[in-house]
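seq/struct pair 1
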Amino acid sequence: MVYSGISVGLLAAPLVSTTISDGTKLTVTATILKRASLQVLAQPGPVVLTAADIARGYVDVPGALEVAVQNNSADGYLLTFESQGEFIKQTRVQGLANDVQLDALGGSIAQSANGRGVQKVTLNLGFRFALADAARQGVYAWPIRLSVTPL
């Protein structure tokens, strides 16, 4: 919390240049640290694998995860998906500019910024999990952990 207050204070700090009465010039600048945050708005429940899913080789979970990303980096941000499901061979993430295919462990996806300053975007992400050969019917805890880092 303290860091957030400092960051906001620095965002508002203008470049100041002034001349002191003895002719000395003083210039003050501020550096704004890059920051990105992620808030889960809608979280998926467990993944249910049926016999039909096993036979088909995948299970679709459309629009399962809704998140708000806030970022102040003009370079954008990096979304990192960590797979924690042993039943997954590959994951297709839907809801970004393009669908992205990740391996069994997950992966990272760079997202560009749309201008300068603090930007907020809401992402509604769907998933297709390609099933590992060892996948069995059952109910599994949500297998994806998501984090964000400024670029």
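seq/struct pair 2
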Amino acid sequence: MMLVFGGMLLFQALRDIKSIKGLVDLMPKDKNYNMVKPTLGILLIGVYFGLLKWFGFFWCTPPLFAALMWINGERRPKVLIPLALIVPVFLFLLFEYVFLLPLPRGSVVEWP
């Protein structure tokens, strides 16, 4: 429930940012610019961190990467699917075996 209210608050803040003096210059000058993509990306990351506790890094990260790439316009499956799998595997190997930092494993689904 907190994620829903946090998302609503964030969406309202991003939508109304134009009315705050001093921040208007930070907004893109293009009149067709839409705040839906950045807002959706931030909400997805919030959902990701919420699910990370239960499902762990291995099961949550590939869908997040795929969703973020999709939101930002990548539609080619030959690019989207391999990158959504390869980047998290690389990050897993880097953190687990090079930095020796364990990543969240989750409590619902077992993984290596």
